[in-house]
């Protein structure tokens, strides 16, 4: 089993946590999490949202069908928890 497969059962809950961190612009914490390559690969759509919203707006998105719903949820969290 690869290290990436380890994250599969936790993906939904960790995804919500990452969305909250992105909405709160917790870049230091997000950078530490995504420094782990297996974690980054397992949560690539969230990584791409993080980078495109908080770091590099020109970042090339690889999975737009997963990217858009995550951005929408992050924006909803930002509006809800101002």
Give an overview of the whole structure.
There is one protein chain. The protein is mainly α. It is 72% helix and 0% strand. It contains six helices and no strands. The N and C termini lie far apart (41 Å).
Give the total of beta strands. Answer: 0
The number of helical segments is 6
Shape: globular
Termini Cα gap: 41 Å
Which structural class best describes the helix and strand composition? Answer: mainly alpha
Helix content: over 70%
Radius of gyration: 12 Å
State mean pLDDT (0 to 100 scale).
92
Low-confidence stretches: none
Strand content: under 5%
Q: Mind summarizing the main beta sheet?
A: none
Order of helices and strands: HHHHHH
Quick rundown:
This protein is 72% helix and 0% strand.
Question: Which SSEs are present, and which pair or pack?
Answer:
Blueprint lengths: L2 H4 L4 H13 L3 H8 L2 H6 L1 H11 L9 H17 L2
Helix pairs in contact: 2-5, 2-6, 5-6
Which terms summarize this structure?
mainly alpha; 6 helices; 72% helix
């Amino acid at each position: 089993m690869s290290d990436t497969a380890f994250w599969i059962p936790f993906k939904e809950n960790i995804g919500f946590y990452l969305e909250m961190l992105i909405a709160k612009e917790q870049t230091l914490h997000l950078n530490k999490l995504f420094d782990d390559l297996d974690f980054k690969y397992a949560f690539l759509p969230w990584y791409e949202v993080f980078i495109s919203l908080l770091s590099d707006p020109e970042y090339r998105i690889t999975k737009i069908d997963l990217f858009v719903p995550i951005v929408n949820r992050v924006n909803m969290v930002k509006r809800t928890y101002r």
